[in-house]
């Protein structure tokens, strides 16, 4: 039986690359926020001979979308998830960033987890931003419970405490918190997943030449500076992420779970070395 692979953010740069690469050996279930580009991409994949079992446009936090995704994965056979959906600081305010990047990730996993069976794998796309040195018990307690009542109010208070009221840096810091939360999700869940014969890992891209990445380099000087300061001296491309995801989904990565793979041209390592 062929594996089913659910790809979120499938019409975006990383999602498209993953679908193209992984669709050669698996049946695809695709989701993204906007219907037209998603349907168009699914038609391209089918025209090229790929099997696309389901196409579901809508908000990742929508119960209808999540239920449809779970139904397509079904109760039998191998499956995997590559979760690339997300928004960046130049695309949304801090509330939407936390809702899409973190709360919706938690909702997705809660829908998937009843389906877990041996061989299931989830690869969640985090970010090198999640490795920023901001750790504190208060922050981690907050981001570990993104579906708790009052989560956004609590996040607003944390952001105000860090940055001051109505700071223009709030979306950027919310992005950092959201991606730290994704990395921690994999660490905290890996034991329960292993008990079901499943694995969960994250990938932290650096700056990648997707539409989102290009927008950040255009709008955010810090993103461009971080790219230029990375040892590789260049941004990555979507296939760098797709190749990493393919490895993590493979049997060769069968002993890898609960951890984060940085695909960043060395940027985090160089920053840590510079800080001593």
Please give a structural write-up.
The protein is of the alpha/beta class. Helix content is 50%, strand content 14%. It has 11 helices and 7 strands. The protein has helices at residues 13-22, 35-47, 63-73, 94-112, 137-143, 151-163, 170-195, 211-219, 221-229, 238-249, 267-275, and strands spanning 3-8, 26-32, 52-57, 79-83, 121-125, 199-205, 260-263. It has a 7-stranded parallel sheet, with helices on both faces. Strand 1, helix 1 (13-22) and strand 2 form a beta-alpha-beta unit. The model has no long low-confidence stretch (mean pLDDT 94).
Give structural attributes.
11 helices, globular, alpha/beta, 276 residues, seven-stranded parallel β-sheet
Summarize this, please?
The chain is α/β, with parallel strands linked by helices and 276 residues long. The protein has eleven helices and seven strands.
State mean pLDDT (0 to 100 scale).
Answer: 94
Percent helix: 40-55%
- Gross morphology: globular
Number of helices: 11
- Reading the helices and strands in chain order gives EHEHEHEHEHHHEHHHEH
Write the layout of secondary structure elements.
Elements: E1 3-8, H1 13-22, E2 26-32, H2 35-47, E3 52-57, H3 63-73, E4 79-83, H4 94-112, E5 121-125, H5 137-143, H6 151-163, H7 170-195, E6 199-205, H8 211-219, H9 221-229, H10 238-249, E7 260-263, H11 267-275
Parallel strand pairs: 1-2, 1-4, 2-3, 4-5, 5-6, 6-7
């Amino acid at each position: 039986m062929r594996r089913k692979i659910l790809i979120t953010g499938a019409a975006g740069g990383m999602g498209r690359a993953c679908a193209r690469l992984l669709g050669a050996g698996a049946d695809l279930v695709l989701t993204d926020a906007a219907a037209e580009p998603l349907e168009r991409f699914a038609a391209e994949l089918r025209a090229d001979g790929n099997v696309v079992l389901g196409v579901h446009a809508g908000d990742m936090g929508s119960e209808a979308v999540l239920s449809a995704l779970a139904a397509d994965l079904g109760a039998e056979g191998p499956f995997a998830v590559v979760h690339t959906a997300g928004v960046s600081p130049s695309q949304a305010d801090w509330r939407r960033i936390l809702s899409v990047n973190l709360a919706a990730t938690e909702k997705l996993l809660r829908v998937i987890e009843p389906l877990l069976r041996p061989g299931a794998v989830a690869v969640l796309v985090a970010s090198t931003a999640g490795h920023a040195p901001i750790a504190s018990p208060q922050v981690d307690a907050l981001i570990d419970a993104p579906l708790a009542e009052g989560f956004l109010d609590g996040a607003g208070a944390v952001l105000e405490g860090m940055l001051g009221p109505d700071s223009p840096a709030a979306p950027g810091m919310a992005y950092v918190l959201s991606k730290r939360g994704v990395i921690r999700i994999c660490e905290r869940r890996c034991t329960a997943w292993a008990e079901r014969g499943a694995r969960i890992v994250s990938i932290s891209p650096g700056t990648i030449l997707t539409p989102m990445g290009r927008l950040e380099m255009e709008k955010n000087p810090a993103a461009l500076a971080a790219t230029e300061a990375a040892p590789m001296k260049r941004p990555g491309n979507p296939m760098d992420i797709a190749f990493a995801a393919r490895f993590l989904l493979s049997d060769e990565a069968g002993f890898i779970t609960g951890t984060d793979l940085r695909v960043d041209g060395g940027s985090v390592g160089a920053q840590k070395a510079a800080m001593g």
